[in-house]
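call fold target=DUF559 domain-containing protein
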Amino acid sequence: MLGAMVPFSLSELPTDRVVWIKCFHSDDLDRAVADAPPDAPAVIVRRTALTGSPSATVDSILDEMEGLAGQLFPVWLPGAEGIATAAGAALTAVRAIAFAQAADTAQYGNFLADLAAGALAGRGPCTRRHPPEVRASGLAQVLASSFGRPVCALLLQPPNDLDEPGALALVQAAQWLVDHGRLAVWIHAESLPSIDWLPEFTVARPVRDASVSVSGSEPFQAGAAEPIGERPRPRRESSAGKPRRLSVVGKPHPTSRAEVAFEAVLADRPWAAGRAWNHTVRPGPLVNPVRVDLLWKRERCIVEIDGDDHRTAGKYAEDRRRDVMLQLNGYAVLRFTNTQVLDDIENVLALLQQFLANRRRAGKGT
């Protein structure tokens, strides 16, 4: 078994083989994704149930990947943005767009057309007629492109009571996905009974500086690492098939209803010009870049749209550290909840418009 201590960057993990990640907790995964460089994979987290066989596990994972692709439609199919329903000739049109895209890429046209038609119609898995190899490769490409990433990585989280037959079936399914789907598979588990041939990576958390710091801003220091495994914590449940919050630079996050709705309203407001979604900000010369939801660069104004997960104690503390560091470097941070954006949008718009007007009058960023 190979052992390694890897930097706190997802781009450092292998994407051409199955690897075993130990001592890696959900909080730290969130932080690693927030810091992920553009060449890092799109990470799909799946709580893996025991299915009894490698083939059944593969089929279950592919169905969930297809469901996620349906949620992300039409991000991965440029040209289909204006097709909102499956009525009339819409299905024919979306299939034609899919075939045209496949002709310019390495995708298989019939598969992509079936996937697009099923996503538009809101139906369940519609690509099962295709061989698993075609589904695996096609879905991996679709999910990676949805987040503007070069590859897709599955982070599989098996149950803690995994036995030897279950561990072997899981690893065999993971190896099949790597070989046929051209995607990375990372298994996050404290133990894999009788599995002693996988490359093993232990991720270390950088030690925090005593001064104020930004969430996710500390660089990895090999000589000052605190092994996560020394302080075990309960692992947070993750929804099966739910992608970690990787975003398409310059666009609202495709699975965030609040961000998509907010952008739709801002697009009609001339005063909202100059905004940039999901860009990185470097708070200071000695601080790593931080990904923010919405930025007005000239006005040095940042808007964060928070879901329910930001109410947890750990996330709340991380948000405060980010805000303080950004404020110390001249940025204003306005935070709104998803509920405010979706249910009280006019008040949010009024507050934001007033703040931007004040900044522009004061000449901030000029």
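return ok
Residues 257-362 form a domain with the Endonuclease; Chain A fold (CATH 3.40.960.10). The two ends are 56 Å apart (CA to CA).
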